Each structure stands twice: as structure tokens, then as C-alpha cells.
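Pipeline run #58 for the internal structure catalog. This entry was flagged by the ingest filter as a single-chain record with no existing model, so it goes straight to prediction. Upstream metadata was stripped on purpose; only the residue string is passed forward. Reviewer on rotation: M.T. Logging verbosity set to normal.
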Amino acid sequence: MTPVRAYFPSIFVIVAGCATAPPLEEISESIPAVSTLEAGFDVAVQRKLESEFDSHLNPENLRAWMKHMSSKPHHVGSPWGKQNAEYIAEKFRAWGYETEIEQFDVLLPIPKVRIVEMVEPTKFMAQLREPVLAQDATSSVMEDRLPGYNAFSADGDVTAELVYVNYGIPGDYEELERHGIDVKGKIVIARYGGSWRGIKPKVAHEHGAVGCIIYSDPKDDGYSQGDVYPEGPYRMEHGVQRGSVLDMPLYPGDPLTPGYGATKDAERLDYREAPTIMKIPVLPISYADAQPLLEALRGPVAPAAWRGMLPITYHIGPGPAKVHLKLEFDWNLRTAYNTVGRIAGSEYPDEWVMRGNHHDAWVFGAADPLSGMVSLMEEARAVGELVKSGWRPKRTIIYAGWDAEEPALLGSTEWVEHHKAEISDKMVAYINTDGTGRGFLRVGGSHTLEKFINDVARDVFDPRLGVTLEERARARLAVNGSEDFDREDLRIYALGSGSDYTAYIHHVGIASLNMGFGGESGGGSYHSIFDSFDHYTRFMDPTFEYGVTLSKTTGRATLRLAQADILPFRFTNFADNVRKYVEDLIELAKKKREETEKKNKLIDENAFVLAADPLKTYVPPTKDTPVPEFDFTLLESALARLERSAEAYEAALARFFASGKSLSAEESQQLNAILISTERTMIREEGLPRRSWFKHQIYAPGLYTGYGVKTLPGIREGLEERNWDEVRQYIGVVSEKLDGVADAIDSAVALLSDE
């Protein structure tokens, strides 16, 4: 059998003319299931290759590289950030990779002025700094260190009453409205959690606030979780969570070059006109700095769910606390250095399998991102050792160390936008990591790769327990009472945003995976100066055994995708997940209808009762528009067809391998190109409502969840935002996309069945 060229436009002609799949009941139940390993490889050869790969892995390499790379601050534009990019490139070249450092000039504002002070009813000046600790060697390194701030905040100098808004998400403002509290003209203070940080100032601005302060409450991120640093791993009282507040649900990447690469001569927006830059000043602070501000608030006592773990009574306000917030930034471009190394495929150099992890950090970045970066580097080194021994991958393997991820996925997004046509033509799949710890393997990604990555997890063992990663994850689901614990394949989560896979899956339609270990490594250093080598080696993965296990996991995924004669895209799992999404939407529409009817009925009843009292004037609230009965028949029909096609492909694949036949080079080329095209088929060039950059119609980050995913987003967000015409439109759009995927699968079935 011969693998195929990745993707080319003429394949869509083949897809469009294919026959439909047979009915589900006509597919023989006696045909055994086919694992991805059996389907695409010579099993013995592949296992021998992977065993040799494992033999080259050494945890001491991860330790040495992390210690070096985390020894100085290395945000985008910093001298050590450039040094780390060059360090990675030097390693890649030594391991046999053709390597380049590709530069992009991206916007990263750095603060010149940061002031938070309470001016009434008492005076208090927030210190806005993290202390030097004797137990943390790099905490005393001051050169090039970024202060605690939120990138892409607006400049501002405002003084106003303070209002506590809990997590600062849309539902919290509904609660404020029930208390009769308006934040217009006020400064809000929100705690981290509940949603991505950029949603908090976005929603505050939409409600008329003039400034936003975000703090880490110890209930969510501090002593309520365990001992704080340096005694334990959790956030100490002066720790500050830095982070971007760019409005990434509109589009990630450089805010001045939307949709195209931020090259040296690129046309740029004026930063004052860039739609994703926040419109009000916003600053993160520690819980030590937040406590005096919250303690000075009066007004209603906060609802129970709003109360954190500071030793105070939580009030909402407004006031009498009045705060002065002043921020000023430099708004300069910085050079991002993306390190990209590749080994050309021996048979199909124009088919690319890509691995990526970013190398930039807010400060020292041992856990985020270097724990993932050094795991990727060790994987790349081991693959290089295989090449030196005489082996060569059939497809091209590319390893990337991205810069400027932290400010808003700048490095990877600009690379994808700049090379979009070639990536769309050649990329088979993208595998992402972004830091790791110890515990359980967690995987998100395209559900066309769900069965594939389950097979990988069945072949890698937990370094402590001696069971497979799949067995350990399954046991955890059983203990937690999940209904999915006994599913044949464990579900992987759908991808929203928050890391470098975003441009691949959501903008271009590249099947993607995101992986890492966690659940048993203490948190509390995230985006602070204490995300350090000392913290990581005490509390996260001291022996780097899980870092090596991640290399084994991602390495197998990379090698199998690079070597597969028939690519391991499978569709029954995809169809099963989409069915769940469709059922959720139908239930959401029903719930919205019932809630609206109940609310409107209550308004009518109150109006009737109060109208009888001549001494009171009753102005009823506006009733919500009724929720119509949506016709999901088209969507359910497309889903049923997708399920039949997916089952037909499983049966055809099983019959083909049982027959002992093989494909010609031309037929293999056609089949694999069809399989790759399925994820591209889920892309709609017009994009989603109000954000054309996001083009995938099955997954997207939510407009008000940031990182959190919205599945079937065109329909779901139409329901949530009560845009009924949009719901109807996207029922049709999604149905068409599912039919397109079924067309592609049917074409693959026809090709296999002709053999």
C-alpha cells in the first residue's frame, strides 16, 4: 500500500460525484472493528520503530533545557526570548532538521504607568509587585521582567466608585440588575475564574464601566486550595496573574493585521482603531492588594456564590470605596521569532505532520510553556536519532517553537495566516502541547482523530502506576461517575481557543489535537514570577517522568500520522459527538422556550395584581419575544446520513484489510486526500456571525466564553442570543456541512469497495 499526497482541490470533484452510503441495517455486524494501528501500518514494523524511539528519550535533557531557558524572563521582544528561539534552532539543526527562524513584527504594549489607589473612604496604594523569595532563585532576577499587567488594556486615567461583580461574566450582571445596581460610570472589580479573563473587561465595558480590576481570590487560586508558595504550590498573597485581554473571540493574532501575516512591510491598522483591543483600562492585582478595596465596599452583601475566601464580608457596592486607576502603555511592535525545523518525507514531502509548542512566557515560564517545549524538543531529538540510524518518515515532519503565544497566539496565528494557502494544501494534521504536569492525560481535538488518539493512549503506560494512559483516564471517569467511562473510546474534548492550535482548526480546517498531563501537580504559579524552575521541580513534575511520557504520546501520534499508508481519520466517533451536540441544541431550544413562557406569564400576573391597586403605578418589564418551534428535521436528516456513511466506511475498511488487497499509488493518493478533506469541508469561508475569522462550523470559542468551546456555534449562539433568524440560517449551514462530510466519506467507501 502506498500513502498519498495530502490534499488538492481536484479531489472535491471526486467527492461531489460519489455514491451515497448503504443504509445502516445493510452493513454486516459480523465485520470486526479495525483499530487505527491495524488499518494504516505494518504493526510489527511500527511497534519496533516506536520502541526504538522510546529508547532515545532521557528526562535529564528536559531538566537541563528547562533550567537554561527559564533562567531569565523571555517574553516576546525580550533578549532572552530571542536567545531561546536561537537555542531551539541550534538544537534542531544538530538533530538533523532543516531549520529557520521566521520573524513577524507584532504589537505588544508594555506598561509605562500602573497606579491603583483607593482615595475614599480611606487612602490605600496597591503595591503591585511580587516579592523576592529565598526559596526561588529566579525571583530576584529583575532585568527585562514584565510587571503584572493585562496586555491590550486601553490607556486610561479614571477615578470612580467601585463595584464588585463576582467573576464579571454576563450572568453576574443579571444578578446585579436584580439588586438594582448599575455599573455605568463605575470601576468594577472581578475575580479570576468563571471565564477567560478578557471577557471580564469586555462585558464591563458593554455595561458602561470605565475601568476593570481583576484579582485572584484565594478561594479559587490560593490558600483555600492548599499551602501557598514557597511552602506549597498554590498562589501566595502577592502573586499576580498576568495575561492578555485581547478580544480573541473576534480574531486572535496580531490585532493590527487581521487575517494576514504581520510581516515587516504589512499594512497595519492604527492601534486606536483595532477592534480587538480593549476599550477600557484593566489591570490584574494580587489578593493582598484586593482585600482593602473589597473590605471598603458597602451596599448589599454579596450572594453566597459570590463570596470568596478573604477574611472579610463581601459586599457588592457601589462605594463608598472610590478608586483611582491609571494605566499608560508604549504601544510598540516587537519581533516574534518562530523556530521551525523539518525533516522532509521520503515518499510524500508535500504532506506535512506538524507539532508545536510555544517558547515565550510572561516571565520565567517553566510550566507554561517550557514543560511542553522541552517535551517537544526531546521528541524531536529522538526522531532525529531514528533518522540518523537510516530511517526516514514517509511524510514531512515539522516541529515548531512558537513565539508570542501569551499575548494572544500571535506567533502561530501570523505563521498560519502568512502560509495559509500552502498549509491548506499540504497539512495533514497539527498536534499541539502547551505545558504539562503529572497525573492524567487530557486530550482535546478534532473528533475525526478521536479513535486514533485513543489507540495511542492504549499503547503508552503511566510512569507511576504501570497501567496504560487510557486505563488510568477511564478509571478516573468511573470514580467521578461519568456516564462515558465504559464507552468504547473515551471522548476527547472539543477545542475552543487558548493555545496555538486555534488558527489551524478554526481558520484553515486542519484536524488538530491538544495534549498534556495534569490533575496531580499543584497550581498557583500560573502567569506569575513564581512559574519558575524551582517551583516546577518541587511541585509539578520533579523527575520529568511525565514530560517524557508526553514525548512518548505525542511522538507516537506524530510517527503514526507520518507513516500511515491509510491515514487514521475515522468518523463514527465524530458522528457520535455531533449527535450529542444536536441533542443538546434541541434541549436548549426547549429550555429557552419554557423559560421565556414562564417569565412572560409572571410579568402578566404581576401586572394584573398590581393594576388593581389604585395607589401604585406599575410599569411592567418588557416581555421577551416568544421562542419559535424550530424545525431541526434537516439537521437530523444530515446527521443520520453522516452516521450511515461513517459506519459504511468502518465496514469497507474492515473488508478491505481482510481481503489482503492493496491500493495503487493513484488510489492511495485519492483516498488519503479525501480523508484529509473532511475537516476542510467543515469550514465556511464566510465564517461565523460577527466574526468571519472563525470559519469552522462544528467548533468555535464562544463570544462570551473566550477559551471555552461552543459546539455547532452558529446555531447555539443564535439560541443564546435570541437571534431566531440566525438559528434557522445555521441549521441549514450545518446540515450542508454534515452532508459535505458524508459525501467525502461515501467517496472513500466507493474507492475502497471497488478494490
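catalog note: Residues 1-32 have pLDDT under 50 and may be disordered.
catalog note: The longest strand covers residues 333-343.
status: ready for reviewer M.T.
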